[in-house]
Design a protein that fits this description.
By secondary structure, the protein is mostly helical. The chain has nine helices and two strands. The two termini are 25 Å apart.
Length: 179
């Protein structure tokens, strides 16, 4: 959780495929997709698929781009990783909209309150028991609600020196639940 002096992390609300950067780079150089394909010995369709986000930039392709364009391979890999992470985050947040958000927030409120039965179970297991959703769905929804500012996160000691992630309603989450 950010302190009063720290800004919360800024998360993109769009996912920009690395192919857009490749297309801009080709335009800036006055190079066509076909010319790049010829230079790399790749089919032109492959370059087009990367630009249209139909194909990912692999490590091998990033090395080929580095040799052809002089842009380090780690830049291409980083752009691909950021794109995939942004897409996943947006899908998680969309999952919040697809499900009963009030039900999730109510379950979090009950589970994070004192005296909830079965304190030995991990937090996510207790929420799962109340909502009836599968583990993966609950994990995705909790992370999405956290990223959306509806929940805050606390660590609590658990068995064998591990810690349990405890989600609690944020001010924004409480306001949404009270509507």
């Amino acid at each position: 959780m950010a302190s009063a002096l720290e800004a919360p992390p800024i998360e993109p609300n769009i996912a920009i495929p690395p192919g857009e950067h490749l297309e801009e780079e080709l335009e800036a150089r006055g190079m066509t997709q076909r010319a790049l394909a010829d230079l790399l010995g790749r089919p032109p369709q492959m370059i087009s698929q990367v630009i249209r986000a139909k194909k990912s930039i692999t490590a091998d392709f990033a090395l080929e781009l580095e040799g052809a364009l002089g842009i380090p391979a780690h830049i291409w890999i980083g752009l691909e990783a950021n794109y995939q992470l942004s897409r996943a985050r947006l899908e998680w947040q969309a999952g919040l909209e697809d499900h009963d958000l009030a039900g999730l927030l109510s379950a979090v409120e009950v589970v994070s309150s004192e005296g909830f039965a079965d304190e030995d179970a991990p937090f996510i297991g207790r929420v799962r028991r109340l909502t009836g959703d599968p583990w993966r769905t609950i994990a995705r929804r909790l992370e999405g609600a956290l990223q959306s500012g509806l929940l805050d996160l606390r660590e609590a000691p658990a068995e064998a020196g591990r810690s349990d992630r405890i989600f609690v309603l944020s001010e924004r989450g409480r306001a949404l639940l009270r509507r």
